[in-house]
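Table S2 (text version). Query chain:
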Amino acid sequence: MRHHFVVLVCILLVISGCHPKNKDQFDRTSLLTNLGNNIIVPAYQNFNATVLVLKQKGDAFAASPSLTSLDSLKQAYLASYLSFQAVEAYDFSASHDLRTALNSFPADTAQMKSNILSGSYDFNTVNNLRAKGFPAIDYLLFATSAQEVVSLFTTDANAPNRKQYLNDVMSEITSKSNAASSEWSSTFIGTFIAASGMDVGSSVGMLVNDMSFEMERNRRERVGNSLGYVGSLSSGVLSPYSVEAYYSGYSKELLIENLQQSKTLYTGAAGNGFDDYLDYLNATYYNDPLSTSISHQFDVVIQAAQDVQGNFSDALVNDKPTMETLFLELKKLTVMLKVDMSSQLGVVINYSDNDGD
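Corresponding structure-token output:
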């Protein structure tokens, strides 16, 4: 009789999708220690280091605009923009919102032109949200030919204002990067590791929310908007200008870097990651381990991005089916993180999403 009871309990556990292990028994402190000390803090420090180089190259270009100094600045821009992708997925500290402050795209070129012409602007206002950060540098350095860019910073009537604008954009990036890196390295890392519970303000909860939100952003803003998708509907109107880094054409490279860094955060690299947490819970996905299913889907999405021919804005015209495949694979990964992983971990998704998925 006892044997039959045990079998019945096991059957009920399988049917209900529950698991016998207690979430609270997993060593979340070890998980957060690894993610914080070995992945998040080094990523902020690396980003800050690339920003300092970017500012240095920006100052050198402003002091002596030339094709050579412009090329050096463009290289520093790409290195810094790529390193920024690593910190976007866990940009949830109370004091900073780097995602919004430094990477709200597409760039508002009309606002930037107005700012440069007047020489008066406030980057803290909503009007300038898309007139600063990396999208602004993308426009200032890549919107025209290299020779024309040099001319705009030398012989153009607004050259002094343009130099000042570039300096102010880079100064804000530097200031915010310094502050975020310093906070994480000193005070916030301790708070992050200590918040090892499963309440709404826990670090696990915030990380799962931010990973899900970032994948939504990848699906919608980095790919879907350019395809004309609004929520679950498609307008059929392509919008090449909507992609990230439209002027430089680095949209593909930035997305791939973002996905690779997001996967590193998920797996924990050589230490404990969310995949280990899911394995501890015996979480499954269509009879396969949920941990490996999510990891595999990361690889599928990265490959789908690599399969796109050329940059995203050109691919909308020349390789649209591949872009659509990328969108669909991103949507699948988004659901796996936002629904499957969060439910297994007992995390409530608390950001607003009104696009109908």
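Notes on Table S2: Residues 16-186+196-345 form a domain with the A middle domain of Talin 1 fold (CATH 1.20.1420.20). The beta strands are 229-230, 233-234, 284-285, 288-289.
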